[in-house]
Amino acid sequence: MTPCARRCAVPIALAIAVAALCYSAWVLEFVLPIDTDPVDGFLSELDAEGKPYRAVFATADKLTGLLLLPAAVAGLLVFPRRGLTTLGWSALFCFGAATIADTLFPLRKCATDCAEGGLFPQLHQPHALTSTLAVTSIAVAAFAFSAAAYRYRRWRILRELGLGVLAIGTAATIWMLVADNLPGSHALGIAQRIQVGAMSLWLLALAAAVLIESREHAAADCPG
């Protein structure tokens, strides 16, 4: 790792970590005086049009994207480029962009109130596209970095903690996809909250991996 990469590692890791915390802002639904249904309701409803605390949740998502965009670009520019890591940083950039787009195309109020349209009435809206892009992008990033951790023997924390978090998020995603084709609700709200929570935890693991690796390289260069 070059001296430039070591200097940039701390702000990159910090940006990713803060982004992870911002992406966890949905937990405020349990604190703020809002009427939500964590079992069957979707997180997109928190910042849907007309919701009382839309500004809080939309701002948190926007900050997530604004922090990850430069972090991903910096990761591409300053760290050694290999196929899997290049894919990972690129996918992380796409996740940041899609998360910002989520705030620009919020869930329309009519979809949250309509009884028609199946389990996912919001799929008929532009918000569905941005949300799908966000979930797909971070999934690609997580799988790419996990594969890189094994192939290049880097980022031990991603091979251990990160892989476990990725498995939990994948299981929650499968839960949602299967339940969508079954009658009933099947606690889809819980599944989505597990999925999004796993995304945040994985981002924290990535931030820790970047920081730890930079310190290990610094210690190796200065053994005395």
Automatic annotation (TrEMBL):
<feature type="transmembrane region" description="Helical">
    <location>
        <begin position="161"/>
        <end position="178"/>
    </location>
</feature>
<feature type="transmembrane region" description="Helical">
    <location>
        <begin position="127"/>
        <end position="149"/>
    </location>
</feature>
<protein>
    <submittedName>
        <fullName>DUF998 domain-containing protein</fullName>
    </submittedName>
</protein>
<dbReference type="InterPro" id="IPR009339">
    <property type="entry name" value="DUF998"/>
</dbReference>
<feature type="transmembrane region" description="Helical">
    <location>
        <begin position="63"/>
        <end position="80"/>
    </location>
</feature>
<feature type="transmembrane region" description="Helical">
    <location>
        <begin position="190"/>
        <end position="212"/>
    </location>
</feature>
<feature type="transmembrane region" description="Helical">
    <location>
        <begin position="87"/>
        <end position="107"/>
    </location>
</feature>
<keyword id="KW-0472">Membrane</keyword>
<keyword id="KW-0812">Transmembrane</keyword>
<dbReference type="Pfam" id="PF06197">
    <property type="entry name" value="DUF998"/>
</dbReference>
<keyword id="KW-1133">Transmembrane helix</keyword>
